Structures
1.
Amino acid sequence: MPIDLPQGTLDLLILKALSLQPMHGWAISERLHQVTRAMFQVPQGSLYPALHRLERRGLIRAEWGASDNNRRAKYYELTRAGRKQLAAETDAWQKLTTAVALVLEQA
Amino acid sequence: MQALSDLLYRLRALFRRDVMDRELEEELQYHLERETAKHVSAGLRPDEARRRARAWFGGVERIRDDTRDSRGLVTLETLAQDIRYAARGLAARPIFAGGVVLTLALGIGANATMFGIVDRLLFRSPATLRDAGTVHRIYTAYDWDGERRTDMNLPFATYRDFLHNAKALDGLAAFQTRQLPVGDGTDTKEMSVTVASASYFSFFNSRPALGRFFDAVEDSVPQGAAVVVLGHGFWQSKFGGRTDVVGQTLRINKQLRTIIGVAPEGFVGMSDQGVPAAWIPLSSYAFEFRGGSRYVSTYGWSWLELVARRKHDISVAAAEADLKASYYQSWRKELEGSPRSVSPDSARATVVLGPVQINRGPLAGRESVVARWIAGVALIVLLIACANVANLLLSRAVGRQREIAVRLALGVSRGRLVRQLMTESLVLALFGGVAGLLVAQWGSAALRTFFFTADEAVAVTTDTRTLLFAAIATIVVAVLTGIVPAVQAGRGDLAVALKTGSREGTYRRGRTRTTLLVLQATLSVVLLVGAGLFVRSLRNVQGFRLGYDADQIIVAGANMRGVSLNGDEMNALSERFLIAAREVPGVTHAALAATIPFWSNEGRGLWVPGVDSISRKGRFILQAGSPDYFTTMGTRIVRGRAFDATDRKGGPNVVVVSEGMAKVIWPGQDALGKCVRIGADTAPCSTVIGVAEEMRTRSLTDTREYTYYIPATQFDLPMDPQLFARVSRDAATRVDDLRNRLQREMPGAAYVNTMTLGRLIDPQRKSWEFGATMFLAFGGLALVLAAIGLYSLIAYDVAQRTQELGVRLALGASMSDVVTLVMSSGVRLVVVGVVLGGGLALWGSKWMEGLMFRQSPRDPVVFGVVALVLLLVALLATSGPALRAARVDPNIALRSD
């Protein structure tokens, strides 16, 4: 049974996915599907609003390019601000999970 | 960086909306295709694959909308929505909206008006002045007669010394604006003409509209060239803007000058004394005026204003030190030539580089101080207007509580709601701002006579600085008026608001509203106290005995304009003048005089046996008159007698002294019979034959100013004939008659100027007139606003409390009980305001002291009257709603809703 994505983590996952290479929307959704081993229900519908929001915030940059099947597709890549943001959020996330784990173990 | 990318993205979203929509479409389409292809390759039928892809994807429409939302366009779209909503809401309540807009228009208009004036008086540097930050006016300061003096006029010789010695300067110009006769024959009119060094024009970024400005050769010492540059306005009015004026001639003062150029439109020069009709070379004027080249080397004629351009890399202090060194050299040179008894060191002389605008410097006039005050007052009025509008909006918001609660329940976010309320106040403020500009346009036209000459246009709607100011004021107003209702709406318990009906809630008046009202009352009191003080000052000034009957006197002065007469001829002309003046219908008396109050005054050295250094005791002004002098002027003789026709040349010299002079020179003694030597300590005694009342000749406020009167026959005063004519009434209507009659006696190009004495004195009263007018206008405005505020608050209370009041009446309260209850709740607030405002005014009174005329800023009468007025207004404003409350029918009140 797939679980819902905790609020606010979609942005982080997108940034992480894009940190490997520039990708188009569908590829991102596929990638998230694979790496989470289908555990997360990545709502494809909320993917695009998130992408545009990140673009507006200057964390990712979009460019039209040719896809592997030779169609025009919109590729997203991390900006420098995006990289910084990813590092900061990853760090924060790890601290949070560690803390929560500690609480869960000891309490 | 993020903010920038955000802005760029939003702008693109706004302006390239269709492109972005198309791109999104393509992107989503691509995604669906890939998803479908994936399912197909997994073995599904194409149509089934497409269905699965779509189902998993969700509604394309919704995604499209969500994505659009994330573009940040929503803000702008909802803004448009909010504006439409606000406009609809306001249109539905035109009286409310109209009242608010009017209130704001008055507030913003008053401020835009005062900004325009203060900006011109204080902040704005002269138009097209190049690199204004490095341009300074040169002042000198020194000790003189035991007091520190600051001067902005310097002799030509000092100007030359600065030119030679000062290393800190990139440029130096000398100038002075004079009233000079311009034109020939009957065409002659006295106009402002600026006498300037050639370097003057290099301070500006202006090219002549026609021809050229004069150059250093045309301004070379000693004589310069007889050329003139016309002012644009004068060129238009006198020459109809014709382009062939260059090369023509124009007589200014005595000399015929060749017109070499026309200044561009809007060029006002350093203009602290209005826009001149023309500019002429300094040297040519000085040579003509002084009849030779002595002006070049003398330090005895301080008549030039100096502006300097400091070198970029030199600080103000360093430049001042540099100029000071040069100034000391000049001073010492002066000591060699003529005996100026003190050295620059002992006079602690310094040079000060001040702002170009006189009104920002050490010699700022009282008008500019008053203007600053009024600008502050205008701000207070704006605050009151804002408080009022906030109050009105608040009462509306409270009335809409249920509507707001419903909308919140329906899912409108609080942020959106706050935005909507702010939009409403922004719309109101915008309308108020536009209407305010119209008010300012009208107000500036009405006020400019106080400050500016007619040719300085005061355009509000075309002035970018004023427009910018009005825009900022509008935004501030929108925030100030919108913030309180918005915050209140954003708070509040939804459930409570929904549960209780609009009328069921227990009666509760917001503390915010009460505070706003008390604030209004307080500020109104402060303004009205200011108004009262200024009005009383003005009345004191107007009732102030000047030592003569200014309203009945016309001054006539001859300008010989190069016609030279010898002493006898001049005396004969003066005699003919006197006789001719007396022939004019309405003229009862006429007398020659040497000193004309607030225009020109005479002084001579004064020696009194047994009294040391008279000049330490004050300034003594000499008045010489023909026998009828005292009767003509209406100056009263307090003791002894006036001089008359029996005091002839060759007879014993006599003098009449003023009361104050008698008191400071012979304290505790009788002045009559005392000896005064006039002009030199070896001069024969002039015996004091009478004591006359004090005469104001230079200032209304300087108390160390005294006058002594001597018969003109006993002194040879080299001067063009001038006289006072006394008319039975309406001096203004006789001014032209007198001039026409006297002009017939004038030889050659000489001409006569006449004006009422009142016109010379008016400028002295101006600051109080202006203060009284503006404080009254603004104070009255504040009072009306406060009254409206109070009325609306109480009326609203009554509407809210109808039920409660009904219960009270039903339980047996009398109508007068209800009236008292309602009225006292409002009057109480005003009483608090009166006390606070009175305290505030008392506290601020120490700064008002200097602006008053023989008026204590702590006058209990003024404070008392203001308190009374406020209470009366409070009673009036509350009585309407109170009476309505008393007429509440308990039956209806209890049954309704």
2.
Amino acid sequence: MLGEFEYLLITAAATLGENAYGVAMREAIAKATGRTCSIGALYTTLDRLEAKGLVKTWMGDGTPQRGGRSKRMVRVTLAGTAAARSFYDTMIRISNRAPWAVQQKEGAE
Amino acid sequence: MRNIAWKLIEVMALQLTPTEREIVLGDLIETRETALRGMREISGLVVRRQLQLWNGWSPWLAAPGLALPCSFMLMGFSVAISSDLRNRLVHGWQLGFFPTEPGKFISLLCQVLVLLICAWAAGFTVESVSRRTFVVSAICCFLPCLFCLLRFRQESLPRFCLLLFLFPAIAGVCFSRRGGTINRRRAFALALAATICMAVLAVRGHLWVLNWELIVPAWYPAILPVRPDRMAVPRNEGIAS
């Protein structure tokens, strides 16, 4: 099963689609969690995910904003999608009767 | 000021692989991080990468397993040889430079051979087994040297005779760095020579039992094929381009 941060990375990459690369993923994670994501955590976790076959990375083109330096582009593989879905389903199942989930449901109704 | 800080960041990034350096420096430029934060980000990644290297067994074999103990033992050989040679040079004319007792000459010869072979093999093996943690291995080698240099009290010998072993050891490191490899037959011959010399010294009572560890770096390339870890593709270099 995925770890929490691994799930965040896969979700960010899947949401960003073709534009998934280091800076964009860090921004997406910071926006969603309210916490900054360090470069070290991002790239070491990406390596781990790639070694597990859950994402694929490659060198993208450089842009003037980056001083012409390349990006590390990320794409979620089918195995990555399945792992993220499994994590999500598990979280939903286990959270179903949690007080905060029940309160949220009642509030919605 | 910013230029100086950026240079510092680039120097820190040298610890990363070229591919990763390119990506990370690009990220820092794009996000316009402050110099302090940039340094924190780079140092965080460098520390993580270094720690990852220690997940394997090879850095542990190279640094605390070989560099540290071999350094202590080879210093012992360095002092013994220096002392013996000094006696021969000072009293050479009275005693005869080539002693009348061939046994003493054989002991000296064996000590010199052990020092040369084992120090060279230790340098070669430590560098080949774990190149990317070589700095730590070097520290593990130099700390005992510093400790012994500070405590060395023999007036008849200069302190630096302790470091005699460093010359063949550095030669071994340089050989490995230049991409040199040693075929199994030669490695076997060297290891066998070192073992025979050590056995002779042991029989003559000139060998401390722990000195036998010195044959580990000598036998290592003879038994296991040395695959310099520079050949291994680090995970972050596997990025498709």
3.
Amino acid sequence: MQVKLKIFRYNPEVDKKPHYDKYEVEADPTDRVLDLLEYVKGNFDGTLSFRRSCAHGICGSDAMRINGRNRLACKMLVKELGTDKILVEPILGLPVIKDLIVDMEPFFANYRSVLPYLINDEPPPKKERLQSIEERERFDDTTKCILCACCTTSCPSYWANEQYVGPAAIVAAHRFIFDSRDRAGAERLRILNDQFGVYRCHTIFNCTEACPREIQVTKAIGEVKRAIATGKIE
Amino acid sequence: MALKRNVGLKGMKYRGGGPMLAWALHRISGLAMVLFVGMHIVASFVMQQFGSDWATNLNIIYESTYFQLIIIFLVYFHAINGMRIILLDFWPKLLEYQREATWLQWMLLIPMYGLTAMVMMLIKLGGE
């Protein structure tokens, strides 16, 4: 099938304003949008810039807006779009460095602010810090995050204010708050009980819809909100 | 130099689907209610103090059946959508079933609004 690609372009060394370039490429319905971008870069314009690494939905490098929704280009099949017109733009709410590449630093700064690592100053046991199946199950969903930023950059609250920590950071906090081995849950709840913390979430669900890992992002945020309100980590 | 962070109207074009539309309509309906009550207060004040035609015209607008049909839809939507959000906030486990909650919301809203609109139209057509 013939596909009409329209791609956001911005080269800071040449362009004052961004523009869109159009390409027509032959594609199979089972091709991924990433394959089409690779084809354009290889055959039409080598200057087209985008991030990609594993190309299998694990590294989270190639998050972009495809036909108006945040998706990973490596997971989005042409047939799933249901059209032969494909619009590819960078994710919203982060500065664009070049073409589809955005500056992820503000996103990672928010991520770091919630202490996304295990904190436990108790002396380590001889073997390992044991955890039951149920205790591990409690935060299983939020361990799946690949930090692609699809959720945070689909959130209108984040668009409105970049100081909002955003869904990805709250998911990361959830992963440790509800981990029975961690001891800094109260500290993370204090960080998130801020004017730019969890209460900026207005249950819009764009994050849950956008997540390529199918994490129940809004539910995780709701659980953190409840933990702050009740003071209990259940 | 990187292109500065600029979302603006591009955010409006994001295809978030039903949940995002419900969020936007919740804000719009809230503002519409403020507008409605504001019109009422301004019209009553101007009518009482000055008795002008301007106030009469404002009265005619917000008392018209068509204006009220829109306002009632927005009030019902705001109330029921607000209830959905409150319930989901109180019991985060229900957030997994937000699609079902949205369907339930419309299943309540459509008959409630339909009945109200029918009564309003019958009164209008009856000339009362």
4.
Amino acid sequence: MATTEEIRTQLAELVNDVAGVPVEDVQLDKSFVDDLDVDSLAMVEIIVGCEEKFGVTIPDEDSKNLKTVGDAVAYIENHS
Amino acid sequence: MTDVVITGMGATTPLGGDLASTWDGLVAGRSGVVALTDEWAAPLAVRIAGTLAQEPSEKIDRVKARRLDRSAQVALIAAEEAWHDAGLGLGEDNPIDPDRLAVCLGSGIGGLHALLDNWDNYRDRGPRRVSPFTIPMLMANAPAANVALLVGAAAAVHAPVSACASSNEAISLAVDQIRLGRADVVVAGGAEATIHALPLAAFGQMQALSKRNDDPTAASRPWDKGRDGFVLSEGSAVLVLESLEHAKARGAKIYGTVAGAGVSNDNHDIVQPDPTGLGQSSAMLKALRESGLSASDIKHVNAHGTSTPQGDVTEAVSIRQALGDAVDDCVVTSTKSMTGHLLGAAGALESVTTMLALHHRIVPPTINLEDPEDDLGIDIAANAARELPGSGELAALNNSFGFGGSNVAVALTTANATGR
């Protein structure tokens, strides 16, 4: 089982790949939209990327609740 | 009528990553056609194309490029060059009133790679793997809309679609916008990026493409008896057009004037040109009328000249019809002999080329013209660039004809030019 930090690191690489956000900015307390300037279409790519990377399924009704990096990491920890 | 002048130009083509290198290649008679050696091309009957001389990834940031089809990427590169060539800045340094700035930029096919790559994603990996950016990447107005966002155009964004006449139609529409008082500045042009197995197979099945796979640089040979079809190419060209008043007020450099345009529809067949040439000559005659030019003013025609067996002969007929006896004093060329056919971007690239030909008083050659068709009755700049004699004002026509029947001729002159 990956640690919280390992998941955050992998997620940061994904956010960097999709949206060009520096990996060091992708911290647990950051909001994807308000802090990292990730738009709604890029967010869809990040969610799908998480599904591939972490082997989880994130239904649309859950993905809209993933506001912060911490929300996403917690979701992945609880569902993988 | 309001004079519409050209104050900036840019291009990215099979001959060069910018307009200067493209022009150098054209005057030197260099072909941009290459063999397609990738595995995907192996099953095709046609394995040659005019691929970009410089990959867009060398100029566009990776994250931004992920959201743009190749057709929009080339449009942005050419538009940024044209904008800077016009002496204009971007962002905070952009002096143009957004409400007086429009974009008219056509693509014949649109975001073909985005469409087909995402169909591959769907088929191979399921609907969840289709990119959320697919639609804004594939839509035919995406190149125009992205250019509008780049330059900050709020007056309008038009994306005329008329196959291989698209960007000449865009220039025609741009002139209209300025003359109707809807804009002072219009960024006009075309963009196309369709070098992919499907269009190569589909145009190939139409018998429209050259199959000279063993000799790519000799494949595009307008009016030569050995021609066997056009060469599919990719790229973009963009012009900054302004009302003369606006250009003068800001002290802009002026290349010349888009004196007018003529549009007609063949009303004959969905792909074959009307062999009488009457549809094509109608467009040229309308361009002369709108421009207040007579046939004897036209010293140069940049022909559509795609290197297809029927099209080239029909165009020779239509140029003779339009110019009459004045055809003897007019130098005709097809720069597609070097660039291949950029489809919806061809009209813009050849309008830019025509303007530079007048500006430098030199017509780029039609290469590979070793054995011309008999009785063409037009004076072609065969195999070597040709100087345009004298020192006075010059006028020229640039022809573009599209599947569906669209014929668009643009008339360009050196009027209002600010030196050479």
